[in-house]
Description:
Elements: E1 5-7, E2 14-17, H1 19-28, E3 36-40, E4 45-55, E5 58-63, E6 67-68, E7 75-82, H2 88-98, E8 103-108, H3 119-136, E9 143-144, E10 148-149, E11 159-162, E12 179-185, H4 193-201, E13 204-207, H5 219-231
Parallel strand pairs: 1-3, 7-8, 7-12, 8-9, 8-10, 11-12, 11-13
Antiparallel strand pairs: 2-5, 3-4, 4-5, 4-6
Amino acid sequence: MRKPRVFVPRIDPEIVLAGGEAHHLLHVLRVRPGREVVVFDGAGLEAEARVTHAGGGAVRLAAGEPRAVRREPPLAPVLYVALLKGDKLADVVRAGSELGVVRFVPLVTERSVPREMGRAKLERLRRIAVEAAKQSGRSRLPEVAPPRALAALEPVDFGLVAHPGAARTLAEVAWPEAGEAALASGPEGGFTEAEVAHLAGLGFAPVYLGPRILRAETAPLVLAAAAAAVRGL
């Protein structure tokens, strides 16, 4: 039976959990004293732990010696994805975290229908990233950054931007062996030509994702999956 994974900011010999993590253990997994779990700090360390107390809205754990784990690919995708309608960004963050994305940067673009993101939604996306990291066994937590204006982005060493008019396909991309891969995807309706030109000037090479029309929440995951496929999940 797979041991539950629990995110903790720091791995101490004794860990007291409250809030969301405790609620999940108490009311979803229904843990009892003696249950074994795995704790991880989202920065590359994890440890075996045992439940010593469960009740009253809190869970107490006795943790073993932390150990360094390596489950992250050498090529780290950074996903620059436009603000999307409804709850579509949640789907992107959830699946992108499983695919190895290390950072999500929501973008405010010319065609973005949402023009901002409230603090509550940002925190929810961060919780989704934590849950996806727990479920997929990642050793590091993906970051979800606050929204940024596309015009405020800085140059990148290696980048791709999804664009239906691009001459180069994903199969023709020369991916780096390691480092960060900046991957940009637009809103419903795509980036404008001016935005694509601006991104190209920052080091994002336009790339063609194929003849089929992809949803705005699908295209960024195609880019992330391509990075994972060439350099390992």
